[in-house]
Protein 1
Amino acid sequence: MKMGSISVMKVYQLTPKTNCKECGRSSCMAFAVDLAKGNAKIEECPYLLEPKFIQQKQELEDYLAPVLGDHETHIEIDEEKCDGCSVCILACPVEARYSDNVMSGKCPKYPLETHLIFQIYDGKAKLVKLDHCRRLEEGDAEARNCSICESYCPQEAIKIF
């Protein structure tokens, strides 16, 4: 079963497979389905927070980055409005700084560069690799107030709050 290009089986394989129901779902498979849809957070599984599952948790975070979204930077993308035009990728100063393709006005190459913040996934923009977002930079007030992605979005799908 796939949700876009996220494989529920791959997500399930990275869960502890205890079927403990502590996440509020009937099984680890049900939890994997909700993770793949973006309707659950990895932290809802208490076992994934244990040191022995740190590798699986990291793999899940990397794999699910396109569907997990972000709340730390206070950036939201309205999927109803987003048409996947990639303007957010082209306008983002971080994307341009690390990607020659983006710097020249093209979409990034695949596999994705490690500093890529936005990705078009299943026809919609998603936030990924947010640790490089200027809004998270320490000490630079101007960078922390960056709203270039929001101001350049022609569909007004990106909101910063």
Protein 2
Amino acid sequence: MKSLVAIPQALLLVLFSATAISLFLSLLGPFFKDLDELSRILLRVLFYTSPITYPMSAVPERFAVYLWVNPMTVLAEGVRNSFVFGLAPYPFSYVVMLVSSIALVGVGMWLYSRLKGPIVDVV
């Protein structure tokens, strides 16, 4: 039962992280025209380096450390463990993801306060 409660928490964390990243990218978009192409490439790299289509057990131990840098790894493993194995996710990984999302929202809000005038001029 504890694992079923973790699924909405993981999805809310995905939503919060996606909002933070899109706020940050939408503020930089008018100034860097190639940001759209760069974000497509980076999203593809993040997808293939996150354990969505393969389990973490298939990754050699020496490379697994690098996969945990990817924010999608925390979310994919949490949802997989909840759905498939019925395990509750690691609380520390959720806390790290939440803190990094809050920090990114803070940077986005600060950037918005600094760039709202120049964005109007560029657009």
